Amino acid sequence: MYYDKIMKLSDTNYLKFTSSLIPTSKKPIVGVRLPVLRSLAKEVISKKEELVSFLEQDLSNSRVFEEIMLYILVVTSLKYPVEEVIKYVDKVLPYLDNWSTTDTLATSLKITKKEKEKMMTYILSKLDSDLVYVNRFVIVMFLAYYLEDNYIDVVFSKLEEVMNKVIITDYYLKMAIAWCLSICYINYSDKVIMFLEEKVNDTFIYHKTISKIVESYRISIEKKEIAKALRGKK
């Protein structure tokens, strides 16, 4: 659905730019800018008679990257009860094969702010999966919504769990963990330091976390110096 419209919105110059940034997409990228896809998503939602069939479509029939992205933008904009939203999120998870669709899904699920417990229960259940981008989705959900006192210990526990999986060799999963830890460092620097020292054996995750901390504009110079001092330890 909407394949023909997507193809008409293709931007050749943008295609060259974005294809190089999303090398793992199994579906071809035709080069439609995200704001344009967001506008198309609004159009889908506005057509109530077509919305149900759009949501119930067979995603295995999608031919291009942008069809999956459009589905994600529609689902994350729904004003449905959280249980219904989760149903459609669950439908799209097997089709995540790149950081772009994965991170857009996680960061656009604003319903999580109002339904933290139900969404946390849901995403924790997804850690049974060994699909790389399902695990990345959970980690990005953590850093977007759950880095607070009520959840922080669960987050660290689950990051450790993911690091013990066979799939941890994947670059984009390692990057997600380092990203999450660097954001944790803003308010939980002591916990992050302890975690790096005691739980992180992967040298890429260890040093990438430190690099992201040092590069952050949200972390004080003093805290950055503490993180820099960890560099020679692993």
Q: The biggest beta sheet, please?
A: none
- What spatial form do the alpha-carbon principal axes imply? globular
State which percent range the strand residues make up: under 5%
Distance between the termini: 50 Å
As for the CATH topology of the largest domain, it is ARM repeat  fold
Q: Work out the helicity level.
A: 55-70%
List keywords for this structure.
14 helices, 2 domains, 234 residues, ARM repeat  fold, mainly alpha
Explain how this protein is built.
- With 234 residues, the chain is mainly α.
- Helix content is 65%, strand content 0%.
- It contains 14 helices and no strands.
- It has helices spanning 3-8, 12-21, 34-46, 48-55, 65-75, 82-92, 99-108, 116-125, 132-145, 152-163, 171-187, 189-198, 203-215, 221-228.
- The radius of gyration is 19 Å and the shape is globular.
- The N and C termini lie far apart (50 Å).
- 33% of the residues are buried.
- The mean pLDDT is 96.
List the helices and strands and how they pair.
Elements: H1 3-8, H2 12-21, H3 34-46, H4 48-55, H5 65-75, H6 82-92, H7 99-108, H8 116-125, H9 132-145, H10 152-163, H11 171-187, H12 189-198, H13 203-215, H14 221-228
Helix pairs in contact: 3-5, 5-6, 5-7, 7-9, 9-11, 11-12, 11-13, 13-14
